Amino acid sequence: VEVFLARRNFISTEYDQTLAAYRVLNAMGMLTYALRIEHPEEWQGENK
Length: 48
Fold this sequence. Notes:
Number of helices: 3
Shape: rod-shaped
């Protein structure tokens, strides 16, 4: 039972850490860059 709980807590902590990293990147405005996602052209505006 203890091994199961320890493993569950470890996985939960890893998930929380990953989610926190995405939140920080989003707050810094770098989430789309980190995920290598380009904005659609409609969001770019006119660059003429």
